[in-house]
Amino acid sequence: MNKQEQPQKNRYPGIKPFSTEERDLFFGRDRDIAEFYRLMLVQQLTVLYSKSGFGKSSMLNAGVIPLLKQQNVSYFTVRFGNYSNAEQASPPIDSLKRILSGESDRHPVPTDVLDALIPDERSLWYYVKSRQFVSRNPLFILIFDQFEELFTYPAEQIQQFKEQLAELLYTPIPLAFRQREEQIINVDHPDREAIVNTFYERPDVKVVFSVRSDRLALLNGLKDKHPTILRHCYELDALDEAAARQAIIEPARLSGPFRSEPYRYEPEAIDCILSEIRNKQDGKIETTTLQIVCRYVDDNLVGEGHDDLIEKRELGNISSIFQTYYESIIGALPETEKAQAQRLIEKLLIQNGRRIPFEEMYLVNTHGISKDLLDNLTGTALMRKELDSQQRMLYEVGHDTLIAPIERIAVERRRREEAEENQRKLEQEREEKLKANREAEEYRQLKEKAEVNARIARRRSRFAFGLAVLALVLLATSLVFFLDAKKNEEAALKGQEVIRETLLRLNDQKLKADSTLLLANRREARSLMLRGDNFHGLGEYRMANQYYRAAVDVSGNDPSLKDSLQTKIREVASRLR
Predict the structure, then answer these.
(1) Which H, E and C letters describe 518-569, residue by residue?
(2) How far from 271 is each of 14, 95, 182, CA to CA, in Å?
(3) What's the CA gap between 260 and 529, in Å, rounded?
(4) Residues of 389-415 as b/e, b for ≥16 C-beta within 10 angstroms?
(5) CA-to-CA distance for 171 and 126, rounded, in angstroms?
(6) Hey, is 330 helix, strand or coil?
(7) 134/514 Cα distance (integer angstroms)
C-alpha cells in the first residue's frame, strides 16, 4: 500500500479517549503508567480516579492495556453504560458474565469440565475458572471503566453484582462446587492431573475501578462486601507543564500514515497554548483541553499550503477554539442536517450540564436521526460511540469539556432566534397597523365622496323644486292673463297650450332629477355595502358594521336595500356581542 492509499489519521485524537491502537501517540504519562501498573499487579482491588477530562480512559487504553498485552495477561474491559431503559438494560452481572464467557466477542469458552459438576451454575467464579482450565494461567485483570455508571442501576442489581464479585475474589472454591469436589478429583479425563491442580489453584483476579473524582464516594456502597475497596487508590492528576509539552511536541514529530508531514511548534506557540489552557490555580493542564487545541492545529494549520513550523501568530484566540471547534463541525454539515445535529447535541445529549448517552436505535427510530449523521459526528470526535457491556451501541458527546462551550453557543443562538422572532412580530404588527390605517383612509374617502354626492343630489332636488314653483307662478300669471284676455280666445288658448307644455317639461325635469339622485344614492349605498361584505367575510365585524351604517345613510328611499342593510347590521351586531 503506497502513501496515497494508506488511511489518513490525526496525530491527536481530540476529545475522544486514546485507543489501544493509538498507543504510539500517547505521551506525557510514562510515570503514571508505570506506577499504576505496579500497583494494579500487586493489589487485588485498585481504584483509578481523577476529574473528568484528565485522561483515565486514555491511560488505560493506550498505556496499561498495551503492557498487559506485552505480558500476555488475560484482561477484560467492562463498561456498563448508564441505566436508561428497564426493558433493554441487562443487569450489570449479566453483562460481565457475557464478557467472561466469550459470548460478547463470539469466542465462547469451553465449560464442559465444570458443567459435569453443576450444569446450571453460571457464577462469575464459574466463568473465570472455565477460562483458567483453558489457559492454565491464574492471573485475570478486570478493568471497569467509568464504573460510576453501575450506580445508575436498581439497588437489587447492584447488590447482586457486588455479591458475586466478592465470591470470585474472596472464596477459593464456592460451596456449591466444594460439595462436588470428589467428582473433580475422580474425573475421567486424559488431562486429569492438570484439571485437578487447576481446580484447586485459586485464580488471581485483579480488579480496577476507574471512576470520576466527584463520584468516588459512591464506592462506599460496596464496602459491606468489599471493605478494602478504597484502600488502594491512584489519583490521576492533570498534566504538569513538562508532560503537556511532551504531549504537544512528540506526536507532531512522528512520521507515518498521517494527513500531513511531520512539523514543529515554535516555542512561543507552545507557551501561548499552555498559558491559555492551564488551570489558573495550580498551573496544571487537562489532557482533553490540550487535545482539542492540538487537534484544531493539526486540522487547520498544517498540511498543504502550510510550512512545517507552527507559529504563535497562526494560533489566533485560543480561548475561542472550543466554540470554533463545535461551530465548524456543525457548519460543515449539509443544510438539511444542521438543525437536526444541533437538536441532537444541545437538547438530547446535553441536559442540565451533563452528557447523556443514548442508544443508536432509540436515536434513529424515536428522533429520526440518520445513521449517516451519527457516523459524520462520531468521525469528527464531537461525539463518540461504543458498545456497552450489553452490546448496545451508545452515542454521547465526546467529553465534558465541550459541554460549557456548546451550551453558550446554544444560549446565544436562542437569544438571536428570539430577537429575530420578535423583530418579525414587530414587522407583522407594523404591517397590520399600516393596513388598518389604509383601510380607515379608504373608508374616510368613501364617506366624504358619499357626502359630496348627497350634497349634489340635494342641490339638484332644490333646483327642481324651484323650477316647479316657478312653473306654478307662471301658471298663475297665465291664468290671470287668460281671465283678462277673455276677449282674445285664440291668444288665451295659445297661452294655455304654452303653459301646459312648460309644466310637462318641468315635471319631466323634476322626475329626471329625482331619478338621478336615487340612482346615485343606490350606487353609493351598494358600494359601501360591498365593502362591508368584504370585511364581514374576513371576520372584521366592526369595520363591516361601519360600512353598512354608512350605506343606510345614503340609501335614500329604496326599502329593499334598506331592509337588506338592516339585516346585515343586526347580524354583525350579534357577532360583536
Answers:
(1) HHHHHHHHHHHHHHHHHHHHCCCHHHHHHHHHHHHHCCCCCHHHHHHHHHHH
(2) 20, 46, 70
(3) 80
(4) bbebebbbbbbbbbbebbeebbeeeee
(5) 12
(6) helix
(7) 121
What SS3 state is found at 495?
Answer: helix
Residue type, 26: F
Q: Are 273 and 293 in contact (CB under 8 A)?
A: yes
According to DSSP, residue 301 is labeled S
Task: Measure the CA–CA gap between 379 and 183, rounded to whole angstroms.
Answer: 55
Residue with cell 474472596: 170
Strands 264-265 and 233-235 turn out to be: unpaired
User: Radius of gyration of the chain from Cα atoms?
Assistant: 47
H-run or E-run covering 48: strand 45-50
210 is written with which cell numbers?
476507574
Cα separation of 92 and 55, whole Å? 24
Closest to 264 in 3D by CA, of 249, 278, 279? 249
Q: How far is CA 75 from the centre of its chain?
A: 38
- How many CB atoms within 10 Å of residue 233? 17
Percentages (nearest 5) of helix, strand, coil residues in the chain? 65, 10, 30
Residue whose C-alpha cell is 493542564:
285
How far are the Cα atoms of 143, 209, 216 from residue 147, in angstroms, in the given order? 9, 6, 10
State whether residue 210 is helix, strand or coil. strand
Query: Which conformational region is residue 146 in: left (phi greater than 0), alpha (psi within -120 to 50 degrees), or beta?
Result: left
CB atoms inside a 10 Å sphere around CB 47: 22
Cα–Cα dist 523/313, whole Å? 81
Q: What pLDDT tens digit does each residue of the chain (577 aa) get?
A: 344 455 578 899 887 899 999 999 999 999 999 999 999 999 999 999 998 878 999 999 999 999 999 999 999 999 988 886 555 578 999 999 988 888 655 656 656 666 666 666 778 888 888 888 777 788 999 999 999 999 989 999 999 999 999 999 998 888 877 777 676 666 666 666 766 777 778 889 999 999 999 889 999 999 999 999 999 999 999 999 999 999 999 999 998 888 888 999 999 999 999 988 888 788 888 888 899 899 888 888 887 666 789 999 888 877 678 788 788 888 888 888 888 898 899 888 898 888 888 888 888 888 888 888 888 887 676 787 776 666 678 888 876 767 878 888 888 888 888 888 888 888 888 888 888 888 888 878 887 887 888 788 788 878 878 887 887 887 778 777 767 767 666 655 676 676 677 777 777 777 776 677 777 777 887 888 888 888 888 888 888 888 888 888 777 677 787 788 888 888 888 888 7
3-state secondary structure 361-403: HHHHHHHCCCHHHHHHHHHCCCEEEEECCCCCEEEEECCHHHH
Distance, in Å, from the CA atom of 208 to the CA atom of 170, rounded to the nearest integer, reads 16
Tell me how far the alpha carbon of residue 489 is from its chain's centroid. Answer: 112
In eight-state DSSP terms, residue 344 is: I
Q: Partners of 234 in the beta sheet?
A: 48
Question: Do 56 and 239 form a contact (C-beta atoms < 8 A)?
Answer: no
